[in-house]
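Please review this pair:
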Amino acid sequence: MDYKQRIQSVLNYIESHVQEDIPSESLVALAGFSKSHFLRVFEAYTGFTVRSYVRGRKLDLAAERLRNSNDKITEIAYDYGFESHDVFGRAFKRVYGITPENYRRGRFLLPTFHADNLALQQQGAEALIKTKPHTMIVTKPAMKLIGIECRFEDGVSSPDLWKQYFDEWQQTFGNIAHLRVEPEKEIDYALTVDRDESGYTYFIGIEVTSVGHVPSGTIARLIPKTKYARFTAIGPVGESIGRTYDLIFKEWFPSSSFQTAPGPIMEHYDMRCKSLLL
């Protein structure tokens, strides 16, 4: 069974059990991946975290019930796994900007959250990438990084961390610039870490020789010696990174014998701004 079929079987399972509590362990077992790999592959194919996708389907079907039935709102809330009327109401308003009561009274037009059908997606990433990135398996020595980070969760918009990083670089990192490894190359690193069912933490920073002094507002991250698959994204950063991730998870991993380990995904930006490590 290929990757697309595995994720589609997970989506089908979610759809047939959407009124139940769906533990992520059940989905991981169904997909046949490690948990860390499953979470990344699921998001690559659907564009959503597991939690966001399940919640989106529950709320979409609950909204349909509100629109087409006279069932009590509390009954609908319980039927779709919400602990109470209040919990359901908060989730509904957070997503749709309106309470269930006002929606039922006003019959407003809400955005839909359809069940995903991967067969309708474009076949693979090959059509999106004219020149495939060069790939190597490399082992990187242990690294010390200092930077800033932000949690990205459940599709909630977050600050532009890259803008903050560049705008405040001198103020934040100026006092430790002398600790930077290979300062002449002006290398910046971004890490995707602590990924779970609802999101991940994104870190941006520099490699340093020592973490003895960690400036206020920053955090140190120690990365052990790790084996990576290294991809070089080709083209403008804003376009090529997303296309490269598509190729990695929809084409490279399915045709390789590898899965991601629980550690970080690392993006490496030098003066070319083109290297990506996974």
Summary: Strands lie at 135-140, 143-153, 188-196, 199-207, 219-223, 226-232, 265-269, 275-277.
